[in-house]
UniProtKB/TrEMBL annotation:
InterPro entries: cNMP-bd_dom (IPR000595), cNMP-bd_dom_sf (IPR018490), RmlC-like_jellyroll (IPR014710). This is Cyclic nucleotide-binding domain-containing protein. It comes from the Bacteria. Residues 15-118 form the Cyclic nucleotide-binding domain.
Amino acid sequence: MALIDDIRLFAQVPLFSGLSEDKLRLIAFGAERRRLVEGQTLFREGTSADCGFVVATGSFRLYSTARDGSVKDEGTAGTGTLLSELAMISVVERKFTATAVEDSDVIRINRPLFRRMLEEYPDVAMMVQERIRANLEAMISGAAGLAGRFA
């Protein structure tokens, strides 16, 4: 794929929507493309995460393992999905395992690249902060809705 295709893809990712083409170009130019074949694991639950991945083509099965050893299906990630977005900002562990359902391509955005974007463009840092805050508020609201089940 050409750089312009990656820029178009990034423009569809919710975290990056609204960024100018120049800013998306910076990310696309510094990112790395990776090809995975069906059944290949992109990353494993519990491992240290130092980057995020945008699914460029194909799809990934997401799953985690419970303490009792049972496998919990976390869904499927398809084209345009950003996996491990917090890893682009902070040291975190992967919360699930991602395995290619079919031959797939991802674009790896490492933490130094993304931090450079945040440092050079404070408006991007504010936008990312607001989107992360909204995601956390939605998660907290969802958890609060479950509180009655555990009382």
